């Protein structure tokens, strides 16, 4: 049976990154037939007026410039849609995630694509995917009052319809049952 993993790393550090090591260890433990790699050390573009305007235009009616404005977003949304499991390695910088992770969040939150508005409020369009977030921090404890990363990601993924979200750190990664 096919199992696709989207492996995202958000640390600015290439060498000696704890979150990169943790996310790689997790991916290695998964029974993936395909791993899609997204390294946010190669930053994504930030949202601008052209991007926002283009999202409100049906794909078939977009100009070439509008399609170009959404090209990166379209690619990373396709990666997310294709994945059965999403593994994110991220440090906590200044009580939250790195700006590059927020840029990824902004690029994949697409009305009509990854969520939609209904008369009962927003509804996530992604489902049946497991999300594992490997968090490294030199001082902010996961779940502490100073941890703004994990609550943000939990709400964000829930907004997209992804309810199976697990946060791990160096102490728990060795014993985590990743396939259950």
Question: What would you say about this model in short?
Answer:
With 180 residues, this protein is of the alpha/beta class. It has helices at 18-29, 49-55, 64-69, 71-82, 99-108, 149-159; strands spanning 4-9, 34-39, 85-91, 115-118, 121-124, 130-136, 164-168.
SSE ordering = EHEHHHEHEEEHE
State the name of the first-level CATH class: Alpha Beta
Tally of extended strands?
7
The CATH topology turns out to be Rossmann fold
Shape: globular
Class per helix and strand makeup: alpha/beta
Mean pLDDT score, rounded? 92
Uncertain stretches of 5 or more adjacent residues: none
Q: Helical amount among residues, as a percent range? A: 25-40%
CATH superfamily: Flavodoxin domain
Strand content: 15-25%
The CATH architecture: 3-Layer(aba) Sandwich
Q: Please, how many domains? A: 1
Q: What is Rg?
A: 16 Å
Termini separation: 16 Å
List the strand order in the largest sheet.
2-1-3-6-7
Number of helices: 6
Task: Please summarize the sheet with the most strands.
Answer: 5 strands, parallel
